[in-house]
Design a protein that fits this description.
Strand content: 5-15%
Helix content: 40-55%
Radius of gyration: 28 Å
Bound molecules: thiamine diphosphate
Shape: elongated
Distance between the termini: 91 Å
Number of helices: 24
Length: 660
């Protein structure tokens, strides 16, 4: 056997053995596409397995995360810190070889993938990050950022709409260092792709501005190699390479959808090993493969050393740039921006305040890229004077995602996975639903991504129920590790941004109003900085309160109004501003109890669904919320209609607690 063949077979059988041992997993794609992964890693990929976070490595994204066994085999053979024991613990509790790849667990895994199409979207973000950072940091003779992004995508990845959204942007931005390889095996779970897929995929990518190549003879290694070489030569197009493969290649179940997601079974595996002249021993690794692994480690270390030599000279010539580059990859966005966080004295919509904050600080965070899904104006996310990111303007700081929220979310994740970029993006809160799968993954993968969700309640008015979020705020709070901050006035917006920029280990959603809100006089009320604790006592009584009202965002002002009315009746009322549940939950128990004491009547007010507030108000508490879809009308009329007025609130509270 030639070396290529030996290594490819090692990858194939290590993958199959992982699935057999686990008694679950996906053997089909690893068998069918092992050689594709091998060619990328062997012939092209620039990486150092001893430093998986080397900033100028090529990125390899397995978009079809179900083929995780293939990725683990590849990473193992390429010298990453994954032991054979871990391969044997595939899909087991606390292993680093989980069912679908997770970036935070396994060295060399670039993205958490599995929900099909997401990895594809991420890769576009990585290519944008590379384009921006290389344009910003490289200098004559010093290409300190200069790498490709490779993707292995399956039929399912390409059926998902997100792949079209993201591919359209990649074509538009002419991301020539993005190379997608399609594992064109024509089989999904339910059977042949022909059941539900008759578009001409090659023409689709062609139409989206990609350089398209089609390899019918999909097991011809030199054809794949040549195609990738061609792809790398492209100057103004991302590349799409279709490789005709066969699911469960070489086994009795070749081309059979049953091989997609279940172990092949001992008999089929042994039959196949015999056919390939492979020892029957499980997890067999030939001498050649061990030697290959050692070689890859040596090569990888050398590759990074070469880059380091260049980087050291770069640092001598451009010390500030070099320092900034490293800081950005550490998600250290500097302290300078803090000096420019605005202090507001006038009321305005919190979205407008957010726009002012962003425009004041963005200049001081040069790798912050802000985008919007065609709602820059409404979300106030545009960075004025900092240009649009386009093929001919790679240093533009505003990314026009077009009307593509789902791709926006995945691309932002891709930029965060890549590192060096602080991605922010905005749309209406109601359309966070369109990007929810990506928010969930950002939270799972611990990505620093900042969302600006404006138009945060039915108070947006005339656009009506389709545009009025009712359940979104609560449903975002359900996503673990996502911080949701709903500031109540312009000064809290400044602090919300600071929180989001300083938070390194997960995403933050800043929830903003369309309508104007007053600015709280901080000579009377505690400082806006208090939202750094999530929730705080905004207005209190001299002695212990009879009633505690909790509220977020614009409803805080309504709560203050209710307090005045209640106190006119001699009812001592405390107002708690609950800007962020998640941050509040991280405070010490003592603080939490100080803010929201037990054994006192509690009320929550929020213009959205109220279920999540019962945790704080208790079963006897009162939640004044909106439990149905909104209506199209001027916002003042809606406020009346929904009963979110001081007097109505007052009587609701009195009635609920039977206070006469
Ligand atoms: C968003 C999403 N929907 C559904 C699934 C469940 N699923 C896993 S693989 C797959 C399709 C498998 O077909 P293909 O992508 O061609 O992979 P192959 O059969 O070649 O392994 C589906 C529907 C998923 N992982 N993600």
């Amino acid at each position: 056997m030639k070396e290529d063949e030996i290594i490819i077979n090692t990858i194939r059988f290590l993958s199959v053995d992982q699935v057999e041992r686990a008694k679950s997993g996906h053997p089909g794609m690893p068998l069918g596409a092992a050689h594709v992964g091998y060619i990328i890693f062997d012939r092209f990929l620039k990486f150092n397995p001893k430093n998986p976070r080397w900033i100028n490595r090529d990125r390899f994204v397995l978009s079809a995360g179900h083929a995780s066994a293939l990725l683990y085999s590849l990473l193992f053979l390429n010298g990453y810190d994954i032991s054979i024991e871990e391969l044997k613990r595939f899909r087991q509790l606390d292993s680093i070889t989980p069912g679908h790849p997770e970036n935070i667990l396994t060295p060399g895994v670039e993205v958490t993938s599995g929900p099909l199409g997401q990895g594809f979207g991420n890769s576009v973000g990585m290519a944008i990050a590379e384009r921006y950072l290389s344009s910003y940091f490289n200098r004559e003779g010093f290409n300190v950022i200069d790498h490709y992004t490779y993707v292995l995508a399956s039929d399912g990845d390409l059926m998902e709409g997100i792949s079209s959204e993201a591919a359209a942007l990649a074509g538009h931005f002419k991301l020539n260092k993005l190379i997608v390889i399609w594992d064109n095996n024509k089989v999904t779970i339910d059977g042949p792709t022909s059941l539900a897929w008759s578009e001409n995929v090659l023409e689709r990518f062609h139409a989206l501005g990609w350089y398209v190549q089609d390899i019918e003879d999909g097991y011809n290694l030199s054809k794949i190699e040549d195609a990738v070489r061609n792809a790398r030569e492209q100057k103004d197009k991302p590349s799409f390479i279709a490789v005709r493969t066969h699911i469960a290649y070489g086994s009795r179940l070749q081309d059979d959808s049953r091989a997609h997601g279940a172990p092949l079974g001992k008999e089929v595996v042994e039959e196949m090993k015999k056919k390939f002249n492979w020892p029957l021993e499980e997890f067999y690794i030939p001498e050649e493969a061990w030697r290959y692994r050692e070689e890859k480690i040596k090569n990888g270390v050398k590759m990074e050393e070469e880059w380091r030599r260049i980087f050291e000279r770069y640092r001598e010539n451009y010390p500030d740039l070099a320092d900034l580059l490293l800081r950005c990859f550490n998600r250290d966005w500097g302290k300078e921006y803090k000096k420019y966080l605005p202090v507001f004295t006038e009321g305005m919509a919190t979205r407008a305040a957010s726009g002012k904050v962003l425009n004041a600080i963005a200049k001081h965070i040069p790798t912050m890229l802000v985008g919007s899904a065609d709602l820059f104006e409404s979300t106030n996310t545009y960075l004025h004077g900092l240009g649009d990111f386009q093929a001919d303007n790679p240093l533009g700081r505003n990314i026009h995602y077009g009307v593509r929220e789902h791709a926006m979310g995945a691309i932002m994740n891709g930029m965060a996975y890549h590192g060096g970029i602080l991605p922010c993006g905005g749309t209406f809160l109601v359309f966070s639903d369109y990007m929810r799968p990506t928010i969930r993954l950002a939270a799972m993968a611990g990505l620093q991504v900042i969302y600006v969700f404006s138009h945060d309640s039915v108070w947006i008015g005339e656009d009506g129920p389709t545009h009025q979020p009712v359940e979104q705020l609560s449903s975002l709070r359900l996503i673990p590790n996502l911080w949701v901050i709903r500031p109540c006035d312009p000064n809290e917006v400044s602090v919300a941004w600071e929180i989001a920029i300083e938070r390194k280990d997960g995403p933050t959603a800043i929830i903003l109003t369309r309508q104007k809100v007053p600015v709280l006089d901080r000579n009377i009320y505690p400082t806006a900085d208090n939202i750094k604790k999530g929730a705080y006592v905004l207005a209190d009584t001299d002695s212990s309160p009879d009633i505690v009202i909790l509220a977020s965002g614009s409803e805080v002002h309504l709560a203050l109004q209710a307090k005045r009315m209640l106190e006119d009746k001699g009812i001592k009322t405390r107002i708690v501003n609950m800007a962020s549940f998640e941050i509040f939950e991280q405070q010490e128990e003592k603080y939490k109890l100080e803010v929201i004491p037990r054994n006192v009547r509690k009320v929550a007010i929020e213009a959205g669904r109220g279920l999540c507030w019962y945790k704080y108000v208790g079963e006897n508490g009162l939640v004044i919320s909106i439990e149905r879809f909104g209506k199209s009308a001027p916002y003042q009329d809606l406020i009346k209609d929904f009963g979110f007025e001081g007097e109505k609130i007052l009587y609701e509270i009195l009635g609920h607690f039977k206070i006469s």
